[in-house]
Amino acid sequence: SCRTLKSGQVSSAYGSMGRRSIRPTRCCAVAPGPRCSETSHPLMCRAWTRLVCWNRSAMASRRNLQVGDHVMAIVVPEGSRGAYSERVVVPAESVARVPVGATDAERATLPMNGLTARLALDVLALERGQILAVTGAAGAVGGYAVQLAKADGLRVIADASQDDDQLVKELGADLVVRRGEKFSERVREAVPEGADALVDGALLNDLVVAAVRDGGRIATVRGFKGDEERGITFHPVLVWEYAREQAKLDRLRRQVEDGQIMLRVARTIPAECAAEAHRILEEGGTRGRLVLEF
Hints:
The protein contains seven helices and 13 strands. It is of the alpha/beta class and 294 residues long.
């Protein structure tokens, strides 16, 4: 766990050529990470790889951003520096304006999970009308995958528990099946030939392979790559590949403003209680994102 986290001070970070200083950080989304060493720098340990934050002020960027713009960014840690900080320095390409009409906490949930889902759909490269299956559809990555897939014109079969059934329907799934180890069987009942591709947000790994047709594709979010039988290809998705894709981050902003993406916050927590946030996350069952407030 990361329960040894505590607040502290480090030397100030400043922008440089091609990098932008963002301050003050208002909110930062909480995401799973590896075990946190007690010797890791307070609020800056490597566990926070791929965390996101949004902030009120930023140095001007090459991409039509001005000093004082309200922005969000995806943060990839360098050395001991990560995203749990009142000030961060990021590449200019990692920054975009925040969506209008959302709250501070809601905006913090978008970059990391939104870009992960966008990357998954891009590598799967489906055409309009094809069938995408999604596991973990009530979760962060899975929920974005459902919404972005519908915006791309795909047919979506998604999983849900009984309690989450209505939520996943509201996200846009064309068909909702019961979640669990029999997911593949339930997909085949609905689509005997199998889905064209799958985003495995629930980390079911080998259990979902049978849901995909021969020659289909599977996007995984924790590096899993199974045996490529029946011509099925696996595509592990690493969000830092999109950490400098500003145009894609800005597209997500526009999709929020157009009502194509719903931003979900499970709970806001003071930044000094980051350890408690990770305890809650480890317990599972969170719907939406936990967000630290500075």
